Amino acid sequence: MKPKIFVTRRLPEGAMRALEDNFAVECNPHDRVLTRQELLAGVAGKDGVLPLLTDRVDDELLDAAGPQLKIVANYAVGFNNIDVAACTRRKIPATNTPGVLTDTTADLAMALLLAVARRVVPADAYARAGKYQGWAPLLFVGADVHHKTLGLLGFGRIGYAMAKRAAGFDMKVIYHDVVRADPKLEQQVGARFVDKETLLRESDFVSVHVPLTPETKHIMAAPDFALMKPTAYVINTARGEVIHEEALVAALQAGQIAGAGLDVFEFEPQIHPGLLTMEKVVILPHIASGSIETRTKMGLIAADNLIAVLIKGQTPPPTCLNPEIYA
Ligand code: DGY
Hints:
This protein is α/β, with parallel strands linked by helices. The chain has 13 helices and twelve strands. It has a seven-stranded parallel beta sheet, with helices on both faces. A five-stranded parallel beta sheet has the order 2-1-3-4-5.
């Protein structure tokens, strides 16, 4: 008999096929996030669970699943939705999907940066509305991107990929992280390590690439925006909670910074009403990893982890977040 798994939202076909070939799959039948009650009912009696970043995996859920649960295979690289310590206490491996979404996410961060600097979204709306009357010197003039300074807050895989893209635009790249990167990596993309204050003061674009942890929550708040240039922009493709959204709105309204390109929001899916009305903000619905290729690969990584634990008995599974359970 195939092991039973619960998938909390339908994934791209290639990924669903890999799961259905190997498991008895029960999948959320709706095109929406499950309610907590539906989620708890869905995981009951399953050997494996494949949640999304919209599903909280904690003691309550692990209890609801029952003692036969052997793996939680998150469909995301970020895993702030998972109480990994709770999984570890029960010796359940939790896994994520690192690597495959690095370039796709950096592509979108660059798209947001370009869009907000060059006013792509309001200019498109204007042209579509039939308002274009002919070329004009001041029509939707924005800010240059090339030769400007990009400040990367977080220099992990995605921050590094963003630096590579910035090199193509002749940008100067500075970064800050809790630990300085290997100088060889810095050299490859021409990035210079600076303290956070220098990064905020010198950058024309601050792009955030840190995971959400208790330490990074509100890593950008009112005092940080106050240090930025009034001509500078903030880009966030990481997690909404790393930015104090109320403070961001206040900084934008006060003209302390020039604009923002946001893919994630502090109280997702709610978006601060102040952001919705500002033309100098580009707003996307958390789609940074959203190419069909990448979303399929993310599902295949989750499938590999489930297969490793539930079929092959391979430990630890390939992208295990708590390998210490096997020590
Ligand atoms: C992640 O993987 O953490 C993204 O936010 C969604 O792909």
